[in-house]
Amino acid sequence: MSVISEIAEPAGVTAVAADALAGRQLRFYDFAMAAFAVILICSNLIGAGKQAAVTLPFFGQMTFGAGILFFPLGYVLGDVLTEVYGYARARRVVWVGFTASIFTAFMAFVVVSIPPAPGWDGQETLAAVFGQTPRIFLASITAFWAGEFANSFVLARMKVWTGGKHLWTRTIGSTVVGQGVDSLIFYPLAFLGVWDTSAVITVALTNYGLKVLWEALLTPVTYRIVAWFKRAEGLDVFDTATDFSPFKTRV
After folding, report:
1. CA–CA separation, 3 vs 1, rounded Å?
2. Cβ–Cβ contacts within 10 Å for residue 129, how many?
3. What are the structural domain ranges in the chain?
4. For the domain 4-238, what is the CATH code?
5. What is the pTM of this model?
6. Per residue in 17-52, pLDDT tens?
7. Distance between CA atoms of 169 and 223, rounded to whole angstroms?
C-alpha cells in the first residue's frame, strides 16, 4: 500500500502524488509565487543594507542584518509551497525568485550608473542605498538558490518519510538544513578576506541561529497557513515519484 493511500486527510482535502496535479487548476499558487518573489526582493533590497544590534537577556548584544527579520518569511512561504503543492512547483517558484532578484540587481546597477542630471544631488544617497558590490550580490544569489533548494528537498522527502504527520519536524528540520547551506555559502563568499575571520564566523553563526529560531517561533503561523491552503485547494501533495533535480522549471 502506498504512503498516499494510508493518509487520513481532513474533510475536503485529498492526498495526491505530485504528478497527479498536471492540468489541474490551482487557485492560489500564482499568488503564493508572487508573494515569495516580493518578500525575497524586498529583503535583499531594503533589509540587506542595514546592520542592527539588540541586547538580549543572557546573550548580551547581538549584531545582525536587518533583512533577517523578513527574509525567513520567504522560507516559511517556501515551506508552504512545498508542503501544499510539492517540490516541482516550489522549484518553479525558486527560479522565479532567482530571476526576479537578478533583474532587480541589474535595474539597480543601471539606475545608479546613469549620470545624474545637473543640479540633482541625490546620487550619493541612491548609490549608498541601491548600489551592490558584485561579490555580495553573487554570494547572496548563490546562497539563496542553494539554500532554498536544500530546504524544499528536505521538507519534501521528510513529508514522505513521516507520512504527512508532524509538520513541525519538517518545517524546522528543513530550515536547519536550508539556512545552514545559505549561511555556509553567503558569509564566507561575501566577507571572507574583507572582515576578520572571527567576525565572519560570529555573524554567520548569530544570523543562522536567529533565522532558525525565528522560523521555529513562526511554526504556529506556518501550521495555520498550510491548513488554509490545503483546505482552499482541496489537496495535499506527496513527492513519491518526483525528479528532484533543481535544474528544471517545468512541472
Report:
1. 7
2. 13
3. 4-238
4. 1.10.1760
5. 0.86
6. 887 777 788 899 999 999 999 988 887 777 655 667
7. 12
